[in-house]
Amino acid sequence: MLIDSHSHLDEFPAGELDGVLIRAQLAGVGAIVLAGTTLESSEECVSLATRNPLLLAGVGIHPMEVTGPIDDIIYRQLRDKATSSPRVVAISETGLDFDKGAPDLSIQYQAFREQIRLAIELHLPVIFHSREIPGQPDLHNEVLKVLRQEQGWRVGGSMHYFQGNARDAGVCIELGMYISLAKPLLMQPQLQEIATSLPMESIVLETDTYPQIFKAKRENWTEPKDVREVAKKLAELKGITLEEVEEATTTNFLAMCLQGGAPGRSEVLDGVLLNDIPKP
Order of strands, edge to edge, in the sheet holding 177-181? Predict the structure, then answer.
């Protein structure tokens, strides 16, 4: 079984979801985490996860969606959504974004710190976003520095859609975080070199699926089924079998979600392992 630890299926038209999930199951995907990006999308992620045994939810405010500080009211709203269902397995998606047009950095930092605080309060891992300015990879250090300062290692998590360097990967692992690999692994030689040297016990997989309307053909959109291609590439790089990658990354994901000791999550994650997945 494979697990897609980060997606945005809540952004797809409702009529497409069944087909996306069928294709995922046929590819051997047994669970998909929906990442919230706003209060509204977090609520939708939780709602979808409570209605479908293949789905799990993350609750969070994406750094590109931050419109102001997370005050006591917004914090309580996030907390209420995160505690509304045991199928919420992470604070996701949060982090920092230094790209052009991103919200004021002081607000981003405050929102990120508050969401780490929420994760620690609720014993949930932090699945975090980090996007540097092109040519300034050292900005990934800022995200990792905040995680260290706020003791994010107490609950763990993963660096989503990892495209950092070997040093970034090492710091993540030192902080008790996982490296989340996605489709860039299929194309980037530098990332392939890093992945080859990573310990298998520090890797989870994802697709970061969202509606890719900029692509001319619908069949070329990334979907959770494509996590299988990422797993195949990792197996090739590591010189191990696809089955070994499946077992290791699924074990890692479950360990990540249980690291903080959130009550009720163990039963939900046990249920994930019982999902009836066809053999690809």
Answer: 2-7, 29-35, 55-59, 88-97, 126-131, 157-159, 177-181, 203-205
What is the maximum span of the chain, computed from C-alpha positions, in angstroms?
Answer: 50
Q: What Cα–Cα distance (Å) separates residue 52 from each residue in 28, 55, 68, 88, 184?
A: 16, 6, 33, 13, 28
- Measured in Å, how far apart are the chain's first and last C-alpha atoms? 10
pLDDT per position as a tens digit, 167-199: 999 999 999 999 999 999 999 999 999 999 999
Helix axes 242-258, 265-273, angle to 10 degrees: 160
d(CA 239, CA 205): 17
**181: helix, coil or strand?**
strand
Residue 274's pLDDT band (cuts 50, 70, 90): confident
Question: Taking the mean position of all CA atoms in its chain, how far away is CA 77?
Answer: 21
φ, ψ at 189 (rounded to 5°): -55, -40
Helix, strand, or coil here: 239? coil
> What does the alpha-carbon distance between residue 210 and residue 142 come to, in Å, rounded to a whole number?
26
- Pull the structure tokens for residue 202: 């520090």
Q: At what angle do helices 189-197 and 166-174 cross, to 10 degrees?
A: 40
pLDDT tens digits, one per residue of 4-51: 999 999 999 989 999 999 999 999 999 999 999 999 999 999 999 999
